[in-house]
Amino acid sequence: MKFTAAQIAGILEGEVVGNPEAEVSKLAKIEEGTPGSLTFLSNPKYENYIYSTQASITIVNASFEPESPITTTLIKVADAYGAFTRLLEVYNQVKLNKTGIEQPSVISDSAKYGENLYLGSFSYLGVNAVLGDNVKIYPNVFIGDNVIIGNNVTIFAGAKIYSETVIGNDCTIHSGAIIGADGFGWAPTPDGSYKKVPQIGNVVIEDNVDIGSCTTIDRATMGSTVIRKGVKLDNQIQIAHNVEIGENTVIAAQTGVAGSTKIGKNCQIGGQVGIVGHLVIGNNVRIQAQSGIGKNIKDDEVLQGSPAFTYGDYNKSYVHFRNLPKIVSDMDEFMKQTNNNK
């Protein structure tokens, strides 16, 4: 799809300096611009590239005045970075604006869906599944029985949504995510083996949640595993059965949260964090990468380490960790001198 400088300026409420009919069909960094591409300049450190870029159109701040000849057409706006971000959002909406039902796909007779559905090929809608308006289901997605999905939800290729899952409005689930698989519930038996504990609950995902690729969220043993509104989960995260994650909490990749732990609102959890089960983690907690959490955490704590302790204490202790060989050597020398003086 091609856009002219005049069309882009209209979207951004900007001013064209150069050829209003210049056309672009792709985006590029300013130093990598080629004919037919659109780029932007907001950081003065990159200004030298505007004199050599081959990009057909460049978005710049309204105050920018070139000091040498340029070949690119300019679109002047109040905030180049913000305008380019807005344009990326429009571009993404256009690119992902698919509708229709591709074949082969399977829709159960009792399934219901709203307006502007996109259902990619080799996808499956189970018995009594209910989908809202503007739902986009990419190829090879499985939607199980009795699943409820709200409006403006996008589920990318290969995701699996098990039965009874409830997903709110304006959510995005990326490729390979698995929502609603059995929780890890096994009871030991007298002979030393393990018996499966049936997992009969579900997963509830509220509005404006983003779930990364290959992230897994297990169904509850009973009741619900709950992901509150505004939560953002990175790729390759494990959320166990009966966990609850509070509003607007963000969790980075490869973190694991064990069963029945409750995480508060507005928390920030780094990558590769391990959190044991049946804990309560307060609001506004920040946990640094690779930390291990084995106890309840109060509101507003910042933690690091494994097992984790307060961030300030960790940094003070780390000075001693690094100097430990010298400290041990000094202690040995001290002990030798003490023994020699006896």
TrEMBL record:
Keyword tRNA-binding belongs to the record: no
Catalytic activity: a UDP-3-O-[(3R)-3-hydroxyacyl]-alpha-D-glucosamine + a (3R)-hydroxyacyl-[ACP] = a UDP-2-N,3-O-bis[(3R)-3-hydroxyacyl]-alpha-D-glucosamine + holo-[ACP] + H(+)
EC annotation from Swiss-Prot or TrEMBL: 2.3.1.191
Pfam families membership: Hexapep, LpxD
Pathway membership, UniProt: Bacterial outer membrane biogenesis; LPS lipid A biosynthesis
Keywords: Acyltransferase, Lipid A biosynthesis, Lipid biosynthesis, Lipid metabolism, Repeat, Transferase
GO molecular function, one term: UDP-3-O-[(3R)-3-hydroxyacyl]-glucosamine N-acyltransferase activity
Catalytic residues (UniProt): 241 (proton acceptor)
GO CC, one annotated term: membrane
Enzyme class: transferase
SUPFAM superfamilies hit by this protein: Trimeric LpxA-like enzymes
GO process annotations (BP): lipid A biosynthetic process
UDP-3-O-[3-hydroxymyristoyl] glucosamine N-acyltransferase non-repeat region domain ranges (all copies): 22-89
Record text on subunit structure and interactions: Homotrimer.
NCBIfam families, alphabetized: lipid_A_lpxD, PRK00892.1
Sequence similarity: Belongs to the transferase hexapeptide repeat family. LpxD subfamily.
Physiological role: Catalyzes the N-acylation of UDP-3-O-acylglucosamine using 3-hydroxyacyl-ACP as the acyl donor. Is involved in the biosynthesis of lipid A, a phosphorylated glycolipid that anchors the lipopolysaccharide to the outer membrane of the cell.
PANTHER family per record: UDP-3-O-ACYLGLUCOSAMINE N-ACYLTRANSFERASE (PTHR43378), UDP-3-O-ACYLGLUCOSAMINE N-ACYLTRANSFERASE 1, MITOCHONDRIAL-RELATED (PTHR43378:SF2)
Protein name: UDP-3-O-acylglucosamine N-acyltransferase
